[in-house]
Amino acid sequence: MKVYNSIDDFKNSFLSKGTIKNPVVTTGTFDGVHLGHQKIINRLKHLAKDIDGETVLLTFYPHPRMVLYPDDNDLKLINTQAEKIELLNKYGIDHLIIHPFTKDFSRLSSLEFVRNILVNTLFTKRLVIGYNHHFGRNREGSFEHLKEFGPLYGFEVEEIPAKDIDSIEVSSTKIRTALLSGDMTTANSYLGHPFSIKGTVIGGKKLGRTIGYPTANIALNDKYKIVPKDGVYAVQVAIKNRLFKGMLNVGENPTIEGKGRSIEVNIFDFNEDIYKQEATIYFIKRLRDELKFNGIDELTKQLAQDKINALSILDK
Which end of the chain has less Cβ packing within 10 Å, N or C? Predict the structure, then answer.
């Protein structure tokens, strides 16, 4: 997969190296690259194969809501930029354009977006969009507009119905809601892969090792990354291309005063120095709420049970 940092970067690249064959294009934020997004990507690839074309996905950074509503600090993203790139590469996109989203860009009319970008820059032959997709200034553009523009500018357009699971439409918003409630079963089923975070192992108070449960403290790589609801989770941990089982706590650690909010993972059967290394945590299932215990002995007893519960889930 080739990655371009703007629409102009894409245009300059193929002007210098030759025209991309029959571009089959989709556009959107693609946060989560969930099952609905995968449905669009699969259709994109199928159409490209039919017309001997190449797939092009146009997405944006920052997320449009961060630019249009800068005072709304509540938005957290399912994917970091690096995670999105990794997932789109995994699902087989040929060309990924990550265009800077600005207020000026948001003022493009739907006609200007189609004419200046889809037609004159991307040379779109086929356009695939998700259900209820809107574009252009004030989200004025719709599938109906695209059906009108298509014959005028020489491209075909197709709308992909929403992906349903148990009669519920999959969306990034619903996945965020599930994550913030700790419902990993729903979040992971909508994503089609386990939700994950990436971070660097940093120093902590090292209390865990004194009670038989050493933990690695994780500092997130991106401040906009969503973190599931506070509590204890069964997880898998990837370090240096090796995968381990473990349990993780997100929260304030109320039994230990003054520790503050943190993300700490206990990796089972692991005794290596990983300080300053990057770790990827895959959230499999939430075990329980974070609790305040009457002392270290009670905490240790609960951690032993948590490990048993985590292994029973992870061993499956």
Answer: C
